[in-house]
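Let us work through a complete example step by step.
Step 1: write down the sequence.
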Amino acid sequence: MLSTFEATCEAGKGLEKYLTRDAIIETRDHVSTTYIVFDRLHEMCGYFTLKTAILPRFEQLPEESDLDIQFDEETDRESSVEYTDSAIELVNFARNGAFSNSTNCKEEITTAMFYGFILDIVKAINEYVAVNYLIIHAIDKRLVKYYQDNYGFSEFELNSSETENIKRHVRPVYDDGATFMALDLSDLYKNS
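Step 2: predict the structure and record it as tokens.
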């Protein structure tokens, strides 16, 4: 069944490999959870993967600080984690190209997955554990625009020190070069 998934473009071939090779192992090992979405006829529409994440926020330490936390090469000063924001990472978000090409419902699939499944799961998690952001790493500029226009994500505003720390500690290696994006969930909670 998992082998029926087809990426919608060449850049998405890693999504096929993830689903058939890594998704079950990572779900079993509690690294992340992959959800497969089917239509009423039991055809795979797509899948998404969620995992917990944090967004570290950094502050510059005073010149006289005795803490040896992290060195910021741009300012020649150390920085320290001031606080963290809680988040859920949308690790994978993919529609099945084979299904969507045969049914002419490309946008409906991803919209239904996002609003009908992903946000509902995030809301349910928030009832037990506070979640401030939904984050994603957009692999190209086309997806940056797509996530902005269709779901309200924005490029996460970070200072240069935070950006480097995020790249070093939060962004997975396979997303190197991707644009770090976040959806602030506070409005979502106000409207529910």
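Step 3: interpret the result. The chain has six helices and seven strands.
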